[in-house]
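HUMAN: Forgive my ignorance: could you write out one protein's sequence and backbone structure tokens?

ASSISTANT:
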Amino acid sequence: MSSVRDGGVVAYDPATFEGLRFHTATAAFRDGTDSPREYLERCLATIAEREPAVRAWVVLNEDGARQQAAASTRRWQRGEPLSPIDGLPIGIKDLLETRDMPTQMGCAAFAGNFPKRDNAAVWALRRAGAVVLGKTVTTELGGPEPSPTTNPFDPRHTPGGSSSGSGAAVGARMVPATIATQTGGSLMRPASFNGAWGLKPTQGAINRGERQTSSMTSHGVLAACPEDMWLIAIAIASRAGGDPGRPALYGPATPPPARRPGTVAVIETEAGERLDPVSRGAFDQVVAQVEAAGVTVLRRADDAVVERFEQSLSGVTDLGSGILAWEHYWAFRDIVANDPDGVSARGKRFFIEAAERLGAAGYGGGPAHARRGAGHVRAPGSPGGRGHRADLERSRSGMAGRRARPGAGPVADRGPGLQLPELPAGCPCGERAADGRRRSPLRPAGDGTAGHGRQGHGHRAVDG
């Protein structure tokens, strides 16, 4: 648990902190000692207490949420819940459309934008009985411009982006889970910074609905525990499917048992060279905990396959940013033309200027470069990645004196399924300050504020 101290700083210990869980409450819903309505009221009380400092929400639909929770309570009383997540209060990142709340995308150009329709995932959540409580803050259009949200454990620090509010709402125990999106870390970064679990499935495994404009964007779940994370993800995928032409996330209706991976590979990428000593120490501590749990850890210096994969990722950050900018160039150009002051200078540089520097010829070469890299070596557990798994297993056999059990990796053998790894209790995620306390990165939270301007122009935002 955690407690708020002076200045909004919250004591946080990864070994003891526990976020708000939902699956552990449903037995009480069945026997009548608790109800979805009472659960929601506890969430609203926490929001009232913490939201002035955290600023995780763009809009809350409290009346609508209470009506949804009351209907869920009646279903549980009859013994007829629509799904294991019936009654679960959830926040929706404000890039996804909702029929009962505006979708303003953290951008002044979209202030007041209210399409009055549900994204595919939101539709699926309603069908499963989840309580759609509100819209969580996103950075401007899912890009690099900071949001006003602060880290729930220390308001001087960032919650990460672009799913800033989605991560902070879970970390602050306002709700058990939120929906987030990702292209370049926009889901996993807030998960790490806010003490939450994040599921970024295979691209296209959760139907993005109206948000099909980027070739690399994915929708996923942030939650306080892996059980709720999985229940939400599979509830969506089993109802809305995957993107057109893509297989949906699949797996059991309830969370599978934890299975200890035999071998994991540590992929540092080019960003590892820029890591500061404090962050490096925290990361190495996580790796040491995994090794202490009996898992073989391979680094690039240990294994030729891992080294080749690391080399294939050289330049991928700039490549990905260029592809992202070009795929949104036309829509962003129109937004800026119609409302020059409705997009920040940083957003214009990231989306417009980067796309113009890349050009059509550069974009045409980008995917080819990506294919060459992907063909060089495949990640363990990826579709078609059996050969690489065999290489890793051979490496593990050489190191440990025995061949690993097939499929003993940290992810499912086929497609975008899920296995829950057994990791040591209190395994930290993110950075640790010099005084030993767990923190998000030592950067102040963005001081941007929600803008206001003309209604948007039909564009779907991206995720950094």
Notes: Residues 204 and 245 are 9 Å apart (CA to CA). The mean pLDDT is 82. The chain has 13 helices and ten strands.
